[in-house]
């Protein structure tokens, strides 16, 4: 049993090292704002190994940092030159967390961005 647990732990360590997304840089170029009943753009820039990353498919899951408003799922459109855009109607202003999950070249990547949605 101890060998099984040790083998499992070793496998987890090996898997944790695989699929590193350190060659991706993700930044929020334009944070959404808040105004009742209005949708605002969300613009993200992604580079890979210092070059604009194109053709990526990813989703951002937005959650409010200190309140529970559920999760808002955003799919992004490739605008070229490493720029991706979506839009969202937020339920309120404040601190938000974007959990970004995607796939590139057959391997997944994840990033977390925290931003402030200001009241318009």
Polypeptide structure, described:
The longest helix is centred in the N-terminal third of the chain and has 16 residues, at 2-17. This protein has one helix spanning 2-17; strands at residues 24-30, 40-48, 51-52, 57-64, 72-75, 77-80, 83-88, 94-104, 107-117. It is mainly beta. The strands form two sheets. Strands 1, 2, 3, 6 and 7 form a five-stranded antiparallel β-sheet that branches. A four-stranded antiparallel β-sheet has the order 5-4-8-9, with no helix packed on it. The chain has one helix and nine strands; from the N terminus they run αβββββββββ.
What labels describe this entry?
about 120 residues; 9 strands; about 15% helix; about 50% strand
Structural class: mainly beta
Q: Which geometry do the CA atoms define? A: globular
Q: What pattern of helices and strands is seen along the backbone? A: HEEEEEEEEE
Query: Mean pLDDT, as a whole number?
Result: 84
Write the layout of secondary structure elements.
Blueprint (H helix, E strand, L loop, with lengths): L1 H16 L6 E7 L9 E9 L2 E2 L4 E8 L7 E4 L1 E4 L2 E6 L5 E11 L2 E11 L3
Antiparallel strand pairs: 1-2, 2-3, 2-7, 4-5, 4-8, 6-7, 8-9
Briefly say what this structure is:
By secondary structure, the chain is mainly beta.
